[in-house]
Amino acid sequence: MIFKTLPTFCATILISLLLNNAVFAQSTPEEKPALTVYTYDSFVGEWWPGPKIKAAFEKQCNCTLNFIATDSSTGILNRIRLEGSANKADVVLGLDATLMAEAKSTGLLAKHKVDTGALALPVTWQDDTFIPFDYGYFAFIYNTETLKTPPTSLAELADSDFKIIIQDPRSSTTGLGLMLWLQAVMGNAESGTAQAYWQNLSDNIVTVTKGWSEAYGLFLEGEADMVLSYTTSPAYHMIAEDKHQYQAAAFSDGHGIQVEVAAKLNNAANPELADEFLSFMISQTAQKIIPTGNWMYPVV
Fold this sequence. Notes:
Blueprint: H1 2-27, E1 34-40, H2 50-61, E2 64-70, H3 73-83, E3 91-96, H4 100-104, E4 109-110, E5 130-143, H5 154-159, E6 164-167, H6 173-186, H7 192-201, E7 205-209, H8 212-220, E8 226-230, H9 233-240, E9 246-248, E10 257-265, H10 271-281, H11 284-287
Parallel strand pairs: 1-2, 1-3, 6-7, 6-8
Antiparallel strand pairs: 3-10, 4-10, 5-8, 5-9, 5-10
């Protein structure tokens, strides 16, 4: 009798297990699509725009947005160039407009499908690969409590005894921006005027850092009178810290402009989602985050 009832008992157990597994499978949520974005470290910091951008986009796309940060904007380009077609990125975010030609030459970027008709930049923008998401003007920031009379031109800065911190143009787009700013005013690096200027400026330079964050941190610690940054940098201190002593020195030469851009990789796992993210970055939702998130000007 026992041998006759065992198969029935086993069949009952088997059916029960199958039913339970079926219910479990039905209740498991479908895995969300994921988007991987290479960017620079300060963008994803706790008090920077990354966390808010991530939350807002994930709410819109019902996907998972993963930021992977490098130490600088130039580091983004170096990473995709090193990884080649094996890179895991769908989008690169935070390259400087001056790096666009070099980035395109890698052959790793794809044309976007984004409507850019709403852009309102101080420069004409026509590009089928890159989407601008913020811009700013280079400037030397100083503390009005310790420096009462700042220089009013690049030449006056070099002739002064003020100590400055700048960034390496090989690893920092801010440092590269200074070189291009000086080139626009003085001529290219090979010109006698430019060479003479750099020689005159050299004794003002306390140190040359790899990136912006290190340079600005040293300035705030009192290691120099001025630091290469942006005209919008004082806004952070005013709004976030209620400190008004940090100001940008206004130069009669004018100020070099930086435009930060994003682009889609041609091996993006989800190119439609990548285009959606690029479009999102110039939407009102994202652009409202930029001014007091990345402390730069919005592009719409």
